[in-house]
Amino acid sequence: MKYLIVKGWLGFGDRLESLKMAVKYAQTYNLQIYVDWRDPMWSHGSEDFYTYFKLINMPVLNSLDDIPADATFFPAFWKDCLNEPVTTDLIIKHNNDINIGLLDKSFDADVVVFGSCGNRFLYPDSTFFANVFRVVDQRVLQKIQYHKSRYPVEQSWGIHIRGTDHVKEKLRTLSVQSIAARITTLGGMNMSNMVVVSDDRENLDIWKRFYPTSYVVSDLSKQTSIKGNHNLDASKLGVSKDELNVDMLVDFFLMASCERMFSTIKSSRFSHEAQRLHPFVKTILG
Question: Which phi and psi angles does 96 have, rounded to 5°?
Fold first, then answer.
């Protein structure tokens, strides 16, 4: 094995979990890694992993074109379509190949392509990942700095009001009431600083009934959708996918900067990964 190609799929929390496992695997086997996030959930054209991030302090592959023509592949079908992004149609057609399982063994091929589908290892200690993962998009960095200059983010509680595909309509109000009640019992009424991020305008409005002075970060959360914002057609919202990505990344790293974090969804990978990366935010942001 010489190269590891990481395809993208699902939302940002899922991507981070998959990328962490891939980074650990590449480090273990000393593989050159390339991250290909040109799938339709992340990109509507030019956006890729490298638009926003880079990997350092480990072997990296600069381009898929740098792979030798005679290289062998696992799964083999990727040899003829390596530049194709993961899509729903591709998963249906090649599910058993795209989902290669956990990255816990070597493969008899020069190039291993990890489709970011299926189960992942979780890493409570993210030190190994923080040593190599960096945010490089200046728009993201500048917006984070802007919010930190206006509000004491690092001395705040971070509130993740998740809606869209994770909340049934009948439970929308109840999910927000539940977290508001929990935060109140923990002393929220005496907590003057709260940073709120949300992907759902209706849920955000419900939250503000309980804590109206919360500092709301999310700029583009103007949609209430059962799809999840990573599945939305951004053009119909009057913004680009790139703008949605920037907005979401600002939300994520500001959440990760807060001293405590809470989410309306216990299983939210977005909030779990923000918590795991909390000790390393300053390093990741450079």
Answer: -65, -25
Per-domain residue ranges for the chain?
A: 3-114, 138-281
What is the CATH number that goes with domain 3-114? 3.40.50.11340
138-281 and 3-114 share a CATH fold: yes
**Which SS3 state, helix, strand or coil, does residue 74 take?**
strand
Number of neighbours of residue 73 by Cβ within 10 angstroms: 19
Q: 133 in helix, strand or coil?
A: strand
- The average confidence (pLDDT) of the chain is 87
Cβ-contact 39, 89 below 8 angstroms: no
**3-state secondary structure at position 228:** coil
Q: Exposure pattern of 85-123 as b/e (b: 16+ CB <10 Å)?
A: bbeeebeeebeebbebeebeeebebbbbbbbbbeebeee
Using the predicted structure, report yes or no on whether residue 186 has a pLDDT greater than 80: no
Q: How many degrees, rounded to 5, is the angle at CA 216 between CA 264 and CA 136?
A: 95
Provide the pLDDT confidence category of residue 236 given band limits of 50, 70 and 90: low
Domain 138-281 indexed as CATH 3.30.420.40: no
Q: Which amino acid is at 8?
A: G
pLDDT at 260 over 80: yes
Average pLDDT of the segment spanning 158-177? 65
pTM, to two decimals: 0.88
